[in-house]
Amino acid sequence: SASINFDKIEDATEAFKSNKDVEINGSKLIVVHSTVSSMNKKNKKGKPQKNKKNSNANQGGNPAKKMKFTKKEEISDEE
């Protein structure tokens, strides 16, 4: 399998819809799946977003924030 990136969305759409063969270094490939989201990621600028779920684990973080606490109500026998 191989991953192919097109310069234009129109080219990717055309290759997918027409089931066009793509030739790379003498090998013919068939486009079987095309997504726009992967092309949009390439064009985004700025800092890459960190996975919030793993950010505390990588930095140590506060273990109290990672734990869930529940309060138990005390039953009093005052009468």
From TrEMBL:
SUPFAM superfamilies named among the record's database cross-references: RNA-binding domain, RBD
Taxonomic classification: Eukaryota, Metazoa, Ecdysozoa, Arthropoda, Chelicerata
Top-level taxonomic group: Eukaryota
Recorded GO MF terms: nucleic acid binding
Protein name: RRM domain-containing protein
Basic and acidic residues composition bias: residue spans: 70-79
InterPro entries: RBD_domain_sf
Coiled-coil annotated residue ranges, if any: none
Region (Disordered): 35-79
Ranges of biased composition (kind: Basic residues): 41-53
